[in-house]
Amino acid sequence: MDERQETPDVAIGHLKKHIDILGPDVYAVQLSQNGELMSSSTNPEDDQTMSVYYPPLQDVQRPKHVNTVLRSELLELNRFGPNVDLVSYLPRGDATEQTKVAFKYYILSECLHKFWHEMNVWMRLPAHPNIVPFDRLVLDELRGRVVGFTSLYIPGGTLDQHKSRMFKLEWLQQLISVVDDLNFKYGIAHQDIATRNLLIDPKTDALMLFDFNYCGQIGGIGYGEDRNDVQGVIFTLYDIITGDTHFQDVRYSERNPADVQELEEWVQHPDVKLDHPVSEYRAVLNDWVYKRQAERQISHYKEESEYIEWPEFPQPPPEDWPCRDIKGNIVRIGQRVFLARQRRGERERGKAVVEWERPAQTKLKDRDRLLANGQFAPDN
Is residue 193 within 8 Å of 236, Cβ to Cβ? Predict the structure, then answer.
């Protein structure tokens, strides 16, 4: 746009108006003052996309039971949100049943380390009846590097999406149990216990926890006491029963569990269904919170018998980097590690880069079968 905008939100708002009519090969757009599309560019010189670093498979140190799949073998079914898609495997041999999985990946270097922690924790957790199973590591089709992972898709939606579904007392007990196992067996804190990260498996009628995006080792990497899981369970149950979600907008450092625990009454929302009185849910919760506070504290993940560790993110090899003086003259050649480089420059250097552009879903036809790498699957 000709004039600088006050916030990035303005630009994003304008872009949303046009994004579905722009092809995957459009690198830049020119908008009028009121956000109307004036022109678009497919000139590679206008490509500002960054190409991020993906680690080689051997550097991941994956457990023996974890398998892999190529990104080009994943068939897109839906797009859940930023960097998360619903996909299935391309059929092999005589297979007729479609296995649906959630495909999570990263395309920004800012998300790299958080993604690394989530992937490593999830794939190292033993099978648990109340944790959505990790599925596979996803490799790019160029050099076989790790670009993401899949987890088993559990249909039915989250508790946040289906507030009218009856919430059973046994599901609270299962949530308490899985939190204790994560904390006291594996030394892991989930740190994002919320209705948006809880499912009910229609096959087992069991509550399932997923999304380890904020996880950390208690007392170690990624851990923050403000996001402890006990507090997460307290506010999640209050949210489920009362429908009062305003605590979701309160910073974790400013949340005080006493604000809800000390309330004389939790008023059940008229649309909420429970299989026991509210008092029984609160009694189970309060007994557990008391035991967690009085009986045992954990200060470091290595105190636990089955604690989980994983390697640090494997840095790419350093590259030569010209150091210049104030006049722009090269004074020496240094070494620098790049976690992201401009894609245009990588192409000019003859390096293969992982592409993420895909057609808008609104442009897909019923016969189109789009792969996760943006290519169309062959008809056969």
Answer: yes
pTM (two decimals): 0.91
Nearest-angstrom CA–CA distance, 71 and 68: 10
Question: What are the residue ranges spanned by the domains of the chain?
Answer: 8-47, 49-153+340-380, 169-303
297-298-303-308 Cα dihedral, nearest 10 degrees: 140
Q: List the alpha helices (DSSP H) in 51-141.
A: 112-124
CATH of domain 169-303: 1.10.510.10
Which string of b and e fits 96-118 if b means at least 16 CB within 10 Å?
A: eeeebbbbbbbbeeebbeebbbb
CB atoms < 10 A from the CB of 357, how many? 12
Q: What is the pLDDT of residues 90-109, one digit of tens each?
A: 877 665 678 899 999 999 99
Q: What is the pLDDT of residues 257-266, one digit of tens each?
A: 999 999 999 9
Phi-psi map region of 25: left, alpha, beta (phi>0 left; psi -120 to 50 alpha): alpha
Fold annotation for 49-153+340-380: Phosphorylase Kinase; domain 1 (3.30.200)
